Amino acid sequence: MKMKKFIAVCSIAGMLAAAVTGCGSGSTDSKDSSASEWDSSNDITVVSREDGSGTRGAFIELFGVQEEVDGDKVDMTTEGAQITNSTSVMLTTVAGDEYAIGYVSLGSLDETVKAVKIDGAEATAENIKSGTYKVSRPFNIATKEDLDNEVAEDFINFIMSEEGQKVVSDNGYIPVDDVKAFEGTQPSGKAVIGGSSSIAPVMEKLAEAYKEVNPNAELELQTSDSTTGMTSAVDGSYDIGMASRELKDEELSQGLKATVIATDGIAVIVNKGNPTEDMSTEQVKSIYTGEALSWDEVTE
């Protein structure tokens, strides 16, 4: 009787061990197979920014997604695109979808996604400066011509100084040439800066550096989009507006003055599980206009 019990216990233990081993084996096989399961015949998840985004405006212009129709510039972005309203949401969306493609400011690029080469050139500050990587745009700030805010004026002087442009360079952007050392007046008061979510990260760093040299100042940073940045600078809600694109004629006609504070690249990003390393400008355009629907149409 004892022998039978012993055999039964051993049998159960063996079955449990086999089950555990089987589960472990299945998990390993699943992991191994998932690493090679990327299927180029799958549909592309096209991710774009919202209307009013300076990054979207620059992207569609640089890649030819914006076309002239009856004398008007028309955004031809496919209606099937997923729309994100900020740089951070763009990054998390692409990082969470193996078949997604998107675009972000080069200075906002992080390790959660992969930037592809465009026409054989890597998206780097060095390649932008040399002209090898051509997908770049200006970072502009805008104020009223008759700006009457000493803190805002002093902060702009800091941004355009050696100290301010070092912050720009340290954060991966192309600085402005021919700048001089900062000579501040340490005014007291508050200035409100707002607009492009692409400029916001480096503007936050600039604000932190400025407050070290002028603790009397209060800077409030609001993040929205380039168009809101310009309209709010016009109506006085913002002392300084941020636009990650060139200002439009109608914005300039409303009394805004633009200042380029840096040059930035636009990185085309894909999921880290995507084997694609290099794309042409035309391939990116075909995806965003809806001409190419699956990855094998642009990678094979």
Automatic annotation (TrEMBL):
Subcellular location: Cell membrane
Superkingdom of source: Bacteria
A Pfam entry, by short name: PBP_like_2
Quaternary structure annotation from Swiss-Prot or TrEMBL: The complex is composed of two ATP-binding proteins (PstB), two transmembrane proteins (PstC and PstA) and a solute-binding protein (PstS).
Leader sequence segment: 1-18
Keywords: Lipoprotein, Palmitate, Phosphate transport, Signal, Transport
Purpose: Part of the ABC transporter complex PstSACB involved in phosphate import.
Domain PBP residues, every copy: 36-163, 185-297
One of the GO biological process terms: phosphate ion transport
Record protein name field: Substrate-binding domain-containing protein
Gene Ontology CC terms: plasma membrane
Membrane topology annotation: Lipid-anchor
Entry's family note: Belongs to the PstS family.
Species of provenance: Mediterraneibacter hominis
Stored PANTHER family: PERIPLASMIC PHOSPHATE BINDING COMPONENT OF PHOSPHATE ABC TRANSPORTER, PHOSPHATE-BINDING PROTEIN PSTS
Family matches, as InterPro entries: PBP_domain, Phosphate_ABC_transporter
